[in-house]
Specification:
By secondary structure, this protein is α+β, with helices and mostly antiparallel strands. Helices cover about 25% and strands about 25% of the residues. It folds into two domains: about 350 residues, Beta-lactamase, CATH 3.40.710; about 80 residues, Lipocalin, CATH 2.40.128.50. The longest helix is centred in the middle third of the chain and has 15 residues. InterPro entries: AmpC-like (IPR050491), Beta-lactam-related (IPR001466), Beta-lactam/transpept-like (IPR012338).
Length: about 450
């Protein structure tokens, strides 16, 4: 359920590594303390090896307005990691012979475009062609209020098909909403009940369940954006993402779930093998997540201002999970730093500096900038206190001044360097540099 910045040029994980060395938890603690002190990140991380917890840390607030700090049992919306839970439920139904990956879905959704050609397997692997309703222009106009199955099906059916089934893979949240309805129709009970009966109760995932309105008194974290301070975000109603993004959990439960999946405690070996079979980048509720020479499997998630990721590395029997309810930084860097620590790679503890600048000085950066290197224009404006950048068709980004003529947007790893006398702006990200000229 996550939207991406157009600027984001790097992958979630890089692809090189050496043998695991000693886990430097002290340095990792200093890293998280640095992020917390600079208001860069709020959330929880946990790591297990051989099904034993070897690291856990929580920083920031679950309820900033009431000064309630997060802890190891704080619960977060995990967005699209919900899809892994849904895929496991479908595979259990296949093992019980209640469903078949090759069966077509017209029995469940006779009026859906191409339903007679779409299989349950196509939905699981994002090969159905069913349009993703979250891509609709007006999605954010209706996603905060409850929707019935009839209403959701109307949105999905209206979106139609983006390509013929099984001709390619393209990520679509609609697939897993449809799988949620298939599970409910097959078992004649709610998705929340199935989740509890088949996964959370048997494996003692006490902090994992299908979410509702955020309940801070139950140690559920609100999500936040940072604009000089942490500001609470609106809540997507969970009747909309369902099994595509409606689950609440935390890293301690997620690594327990991960360990159970990959140790064969939940599914048969052949079912797990099907989930791990990656075609055109997609498995069945799983993605490959390479880190240097290590091969992991897992999933990412994002909904509202929550982000999450879990990974399992079979060669080392390591599970890793991270959940965040607020970030003013690139969460990719946070995840990579934890993995660097796990596998004995070096990393730096960031230093965050600010540079005072007045309204008159900010004004000299205003304008529309275009580049011959990439086909986007970026508009720079200010409100007298802060500089804001907005690329065509993208959300605006409040920039942080860190030195004279230097501004950052840490969330996407972006640095903007201005040369006012030359009407030039240089965008730096992911090792690349892109020259923009101010339009006259």
């Amino acid at each position: 359920m996550m939207k991406k910045y157009l600027f984001l040029l790097s992958c979630f994980f890089v692809s090189i590594l050496t043998n695991a060395q000693q886990f430097d938890t002290n340095k990792l603690d200093l890293y998280f303390s640095s992020l917390e002190k600079a208001n860069k990140f709020m959330g929880t991380v946990a790591v297990s090896k051989n099904e034993k917890i070897i690291y856990s840390r929580s920083i920031g607030y679950s309820n900033y307005e009431n000064n309630t700090r997060s802890n190891a049992n704080t619960k977060y919306r995990i967005g699209s990691i919900s899809k892994t839970f849904t895929a496991v439920l479908i595979m259990k139904a296949v093992e019980e012979k209640k469903l078949d990956l090759a069966q077509h879905i017209d029995k469940f959704f006779p009026s859906l475009t191409n339903a007679s050609a779409i299989t349950i397997g196509h939905l699981l692997s994002h090969r159905s062609g069913v349009h993703d309703f979250t891509d609709d222009e007006n999605y954010t106009n209706w996603c905060y209020t409850p929707k019935s199955e009839m209403e959701m099906m109307a949105f999905i059916e209206k979106g139609g098909s983006d390509f013929q089934p099984d001709t390619k893979s393209e990520y679509s949240n609609s697939n897993y909403v449809l799988l949620t309805y298939i599970l409910e129709k097959t078992y004649k009970t709610s998705y929340a009940t199935l989740l509890k009966k088949c996964i959370t109760d048997p494996f003692s995932l006490k902090n994992t369940y299908f979410g509702g309105s955020i309940n801070t008194s139950n140690n559920e974290a609100k999500s936040y954006t940072f604009e000089n301070n942490w500001i609470a975000a609106k809540e997507t109603d969970t009747s909309i993402p369902l099994g595509a993004g409606g689950i609440v959990s935390n890293p301690l439960d997620l690594i327990k779930f991960s360990d159970a999946i990959f140790s064969g405690k939940i599914l048969k070996d052949e079912s797990l093998a099907l989930m791990e079979n990656i075609q055109d980048g997609h498995g069945l509720g799983l993605f490959k997540q390479p880190f240097y020479d290590k091969q992991g499997f897992g999933h990412r998630g994002g909904i509202d201002k929550y982000t999450a990721v879990f990974s399992y590395f079979p060669s080392d029997h390591i599970s890793f999970a991270l959940t965040s309810n607020g970030s003013n930084y690139n969460n990719n860097e946070v995840a990579v730093t934890v993995l660097n620590t796990i596998f004995g790679k070096p990393f730096e503890i960031p230093e965050f500096s600010t540079y005072q600048i007045n309204a008159e000085e900010l004004a000299k950066y205003n304008g529309v900038y275009a580049s011959a290197q990439i086909p986007i224009k970026i508009t720079i404006t200010n409100d007298g206190k802060n500089l804001t950048a907005q690329a065509d068709g993208q959300a605006s980004m409040q920039l942080e001044c860190t030195a004279e003529n230097i501004f950052k947007f840490d969330k996407a790893g972006i640095v903007l360097e201005f040369k006012p006398g030359e009407n030039v702006m240089i965008l730096k990200q992911g090792g690349g540099q892109y020259i923009f000229n101010k339009e006259k």
